[in-house]
Amino acid sequence: MENDSQRVTVERDVEVAAPVEHVWERITDSTMVTEWMGGEVDIEPSPGGDITFLPRGGPAVWGTVEEVIVGRRIQWSWRTDDGLPSLIEIELSPGATDGSTRVLVRETLLPWTISGPDGHTEWPMASARTNVQLAA
Amino acid sequence: MTEPHELFSALGDRTRLGVLTALARSGPATATELAATIPVTRQAISKHLAALDAVGLVTRHQEGREVRYQFEADALDTVASWATDTAGTWDRRLDRLRRSLE
Question: Structural domain of residue B29, as residue ranges?
Answer without folding.
Answer: 4-101
